[in-house]
Amino acid sequence: TKQSFATTFHRDESLERLRGRVLNQDAHSLGEAQTLLEQDVLALRHAVQPNAVIAERLRQADLPFLRLDTGRFFGDIADGAAKLADIATQQQEQLVIVGASLARLSVQQQAAAQSRLLLAMLPLLPFVLLAAISVLALAVPPVEQPLIFGAALLVTLTLCGGLVWYGRKQRWF
Prior knowledge:
This protein is mainly alpha-helical. The protein is built from five helices and no strands.
């Protein structure tokens, strides 16, 4: 039981470090660290909870053939196992919170990456617009079909303007 408490305290320190890394937005390999901690906590819960139940039953049992006070003898073991089970439950709850924080951090980082990508693509927008106009001019010569060319040009300009407007609305730049 003493060794279990030492392991539990070590896990608490690891959980605290993980929480600090989330707060500092150090997302590199946080998912892997969280997964390892979840596995450790689940292993502790699966090992301790059945033992806590058994130790509690032994504490309450009347076993005259053992010739000892079962309440005192198994009481410490039952208390320790119950405390370990409570700690494991608390750690599991904290890991759920850390997981939610990691999910929010991931969404924020994806939004920042999209913003950077859009900013990298915006300088290319005039070239894309010129290419679209050139293709339109080949497909529908402006002299022969001025109405169709004008409509296609208007659609192209609207789409490019819409992209810039949407980026500004989303505060990407």
